[in-house]
Amino acid sequence: MKKNINTVLIGLIAGFSGSFLFNQLNPNQHKIFINKESPTPIHQVDSRQSQVLNQDFSIASELSTQSVVYIKTTVGSQQDQYNWFDYYFHGKGGHSIGSGSGVIYSRDGYIITNNHVIENASNIEVIHGKHSYQAKIVGVDPSTDLAILKVEANDLPAVKIGNSSKLKIGEWVLAVGNPFNLNTTVTAGIVSAKARSINIVNSQFPIESFIQTDAAINPGNSGGALVNLQGELVGINTAILSKTGSYAGYGFAVPADIVVKITNDLIKFGEVQKAFLGASVSEINSEIAKKYSLSTINGVLVANILPEGAAEQSGLSTGDVILKINNLPVDSKSHFDEAISYQSPGDKVNIIFMRGGQVKETTAKLTNREGTTEFLKREIYTSKTLGADFEKVSKVEKNKIGIDNGVRIIKVTGGFFRRLGIEEGFIVTHINRKPINSAEEIVDIVENTRGRVIIEGVNSAGTKGYYSYYY
Questions:
Q1: Angle, helix 256-269 to helix 333-341, in steps of 10 degrees
Q2: What 3-state DSSP class applies to 198?
Q3: Is a pLDDT exceeding 90 seen at residue 43?
Q4: Is 200 exposed, middle or buried (0-12, 13-18, 19+ CB in 10 A)?
Q5: Please, which residues bridge with residue 388 across strands?
Q6: Is 145 a catalytic residue?
Q7: Which of 112, 124, 391, 454 is the most exposed place for a label (fewest CB within 10 A)?
């Protein structure tokens, strides 16, 4: 009996030893086969893949968290914090507190955040570690929901900028921000999609080409960083898609390539030098392809051409299908908007398009909103009497909404216009049937007319309307 047990033990030891030796000597041990008879591997991990799969997120987190700040905002006057209404009825005070995140763009104090984080703020505080700074608004771009702040500081840890165009679907990314006032929080996920449009940007010319990620993003993350595993900025976290207002699996970030263009323009010019092709485009599906007798559903359809615009001068026509811009594939309106957003007025772009089943090529020189190639500066006219700020409506926008003239009310600060109930964004086209071409005309007519006055125009959605009063 004892002899038999010894024999079994010797056999087991020999088997284990042989198996171990085989595994050490077999060069194909890392291959996984479908079955014993099949010599074809279904997966083979190379050294680069193995390194990525074994890598944690500590390095990227360490690099990126030092460049993300906490932003506190006050909307309304803090002097009204304790008014008589609060004292007797415990109602809301004269101001409200908001918060969000931001990313340090440069060592000398330029900060990137979302426009909706600082919109209507009377006071903006930037907190970095144990330091607190008062911030000023350098410029905002509602079309991308971005804003640039400036604090008086030196040697801040600026974020390293990555290349969002090289991001791949399935690639790991980290979201860094301050959700629910929890400072410096890092969550991980992957790039779920690119060039995603979710129709949240309230602007006449919105640029929605979001990076979609499943990294957890919640209220307070807005304006924070989306980074790759090298700790490089690849996007600015902007929105979530949720029925509850909290994370539900979908987060969206403005691509870093767009962010850099917007940021540099706002720092240098105070506004974005937006380029226009002078053409509106629409998505192509099987129904559209059949309607226009198109031989492809790739690209975007040229739906409208602005007279004397860049597209018309380049030879493009309604019904053409744009396939590529500067060799970048254009498969959706989001792709088209993103490709143009990288450019400035005066830049030339190469366009590959299809007409009548034939692929053609042309070059277009992009223009600004007035149809020229000059750099423009935003001009705002303020009337304390009317309690409003005004600006002229650009040539491109007038063509889009179908008006010949008009002046936009960009802000109502009080006074007569607030009492009248005129909303911000309303474009005044006529007063008592007289066409309006400047803010000075509005002020002159309103201040000097007695009797009935009718202010006609269109609202921010393009709907016609009017305000009537006796003065």
A1: 40
A2: coil
A3: no
A4: middle
A5: 383, 412
A6: yes
A7: 454
> Which of helix, strand or coil describes residue 226?
strand
**Active-site residue flag, 116:** yes
pLDDT at 168 over 80: yes
pLDDT for 80: 44
Q: Which runs of E-coded beta strand occur in 356-432?
A: 358-365, 381-383, 388-392, 407-412, 427-431
Q: Give me the half-sphere count of Cα atoms (radius 13 Å) on the Cβ side of residue 297.
A: 8
Of 116, 209, 337, 341, which is the active-site residue?
A: 116
Catalytic residue (choose from 64, 99, 145, 209): 145
| Domains detected in the chain | 69-150 (2.40.10.10), 160-269 (2.40.10.10), 279-365 (2.30.42.10), 381-470 (2.30.42.10)
Is 222 among the residues known to form the active site? Answer: yes
| Contact assessment for residue 148 and residue 124, using Cβ atoms and an 8 Å cutoff | no
The single residue listed with the structure tokens 């990555």 is 162
Pick the catalytic residue from 164, 222, 280, 332: 222
Sign of the dihedral through C-alpha 365, 369, 372, 373 = negative
Is 70 exceeded by the pLDDT of residue 24? Answer: no
